[in-house]
Amino acid sequence: MPEHSASRRFRSLFPFLLLPIVVSSLGLAQPALADTHPGQAALVSEVARDTGKSPAALNALLDQAKMQQGILDAISRPAEAKPWSAYRPIFLTDKRIADGVAFYREHRELLERIGKQYGVAPQYIVAILGVETFYGRVTGKYKVLDALVTLGFYYPPRATYFRQQLKTLLELPDNHLAGPLDTLTGSYAGAQGWGQFMPDSIRDYAVDAEGDGRIDLQNSLPDILASVANYFAKHGWVDGGPVAARAQPDGAAKPLGDWQAKPQWPLEQLEAWGYAPFQHLNPGEPTSLLMLDGLSGPEHWFTFNNFYVITRYNRSPMYAMAVNQLALAIMDGVRSADRVQ
Questions:
Q1: What is the pLDDT of residue 198?
Q2: Are strands 265-266 and 185-186 parallel, antiparallel or unpaired?
Q3: 20 to 30 A from 301, CA-CA: which of 104, 210, 243, 247?
Q4: SS3 for the chain, per residue?
C-alpha cells in the first residue's frame, strides 16, 4: 500500500488523535488581542483583582472610550495660568454674584442646616458651586470615561494621577454614580456633578444626604451641598475662622519667598516683619503671606487655615481667592436683600 494511502486510512480511523495537534497549532498561530488603549490590559487586571468585576465587562467599557485631542488641548491651557488681574473677572461678575445670592436665598433652609451640621459657612458651599459650574448650569460636556482614558493613557505629564482616577472610577459602586458609567459627563479632567468631584473625592467625601441609598452629585441638591460641606469639614475647616485678609507691607518689609499653602507663622510674626493687617485679627493666628498680581499692582494677603482648606479642592491660590471673594460678595448680597424685605 502506498504511504499516502496508509496515512489517509489512519486519519479516517483515528481522527481524534490529531485534534489536539491541530487546535494547538491554531492557538499558536493566533495573535494576542491588542489593547484598545496602551496599558488597558494591566488596568483591567488590577480592577478585576481588586473588585471581582468581570474583565470582559471592563474591557467593553474601555473599548468604547475615545482618546480626544480636545481634552489634551484643554488641559494644556488652564485658567490658572492667567494672572490674578485676568483670573478674577472670570468669576467675580455681577451675574455670578447675583445668581449666588438668589441660589442662597432659594435654598437657605437646606444650606444653613447642612452648614450647621458640618460646621462650614454656607456661603462657601454656594461659592464652590458658583466657581465650579455656575450653580449647576455648566457641569461639563465630555464623557468622563473619554476624559480619564485620554489623560490616564495619553498624557504623560500626569498620567499616574489620572490613571489612578480612572481605576477608582471603574471601582466605584453603581450607587455612587449619577447614572451608568458609560453615560456620565463632566469636565475635561473627568470631574463630575455640580461640585466637580473627581472619582477619589466621590469615594472619600461624597454623601448620601437624602438617605435613599444613592449618591447623586448631578441631580440631588442635598447630596451635592452635603458632599461639598463634608469635603471642607474633612480637610479641617474651622467654623468661624478667618480665610484671607489684606496685608500692607511697609518699605522695609522682609521678603518671604514663595507662598506656602499651609499657614507658616503666627500673624504677629508677619507684623514684626513689616506686614500690617487692614483689620483687627488674632495676633496668634497661623498664617502665610500671598502676593497676587492685581489690576493696580501687587496685592498682599494673609491666608489662614480655611484658605488652605479651599486649596485642597483646587491647589491654585487664585482659585481659593476667587471662592473666598465670591462667598463674601454673596453673603453681602444676601444680607442686603434681607434688609430690604
A1: 98
A2: unpaired
A3: 104
A4: CCHHHHHHHHHHHCHHHCHHHHHHHHHHHCCCCCCCCCCHHHHHHHHHHHHCCCHHHHHHHHHHCCCCHHHHHHHCCCHHHCCHHHHHHHHCCHHHHHHHHHHHHHCHHHHHHHHHHHCCCHHHHHHHHHHHHCCCCCCCCEEHHHHHHHHHHHCHHHHHHHHHHHHHHHHCCHHHCCCCHHHCEECCCCCECCCCECHHHHHHHCCCCCCCCCCCCCCCHHHHHHHHHHHHHHCCCCCCCCCEEEEEECCCCCCCCCCCCCCCEEHHHHHHCCEEECCCCCCCCEEEEEEEEECCEEEEEEECHHHHHHHHHCCCHHHHHHHHHHHHHHHHHHHHHHHHC
Predicted TM-score (pTM) of the model is 0.88
Among 109, 132, 171, 271, the active-site one is: 132
The answer to whether residue 271 is catalytic is: no
pLDDT tens-place string over residues 254-280: 999 999 999 999 999 999 999 999 999
Please report the pLDDT score of residue 127 as a whole number: 98
By the 8 A CB rule, do 146 and 68 touch? yes
Specify whether the CB–CB gap between 320 and 84 falls below 8 A.
no
How confident is the model over 22-66, as pLDDT tens digits? Answer: 333 334 434 445 679 999 999 999 999 999 999 999 999 999 999
| Residue 287: per-residue pLDDT | 98
pLDDT digits (tens, 9 = 90+) for 103-119: 999 999 999 999 999 99
Domain ranges of the chain: 69-234
Q: What are phi and psi of 212, to 5 degrees?
A: -100, 10
